[in-house]
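in:
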């Protein structure tokens, strides 16, 4: 199965280059359909002609982004070397209420 998701330029480029290997998402009903072995087609948010596909190699579910951030390398999650991720960073995309309702992936 192919799932379609949009990305801003920085994460789009980092996944395409292979430095960002973990995509952070809310585990909402759309993402609950994603299974290991499926493909995700990422589309550039600003230039819809730019697309690529990746294969889902694993799924890691957590209650909060704070828990997820403790489990993985910041670079693998798309942060620059030396940057320390903060769970609050994800609140610009997903509210605390959404995170509590669905968990994160």
């Amino acid at each position: 199965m192919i799932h379609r998701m949009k990305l801003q330029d920085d994460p789009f480029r980092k996944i395409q280059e292979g430095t960002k290997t973990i995509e952070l998402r809310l585990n909402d009903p759309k993402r609950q359909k994603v299974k290991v072995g499926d493909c995700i087609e990422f589309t550039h948010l600003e230039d819809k002609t730019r697309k690529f596909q990746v294969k889902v190699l694993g799924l890691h579910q957590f209650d909060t982004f704070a828990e997820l951030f403790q489990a993985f390398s910041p670079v693998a999650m798309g942060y620059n070397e030396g940057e320390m991720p903060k769970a609050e960073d994800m609140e610009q995309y997903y509210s605390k209420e959404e995170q509590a309702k669905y968990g994160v992936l």
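note: The chain has a mean pLDDT of 95.
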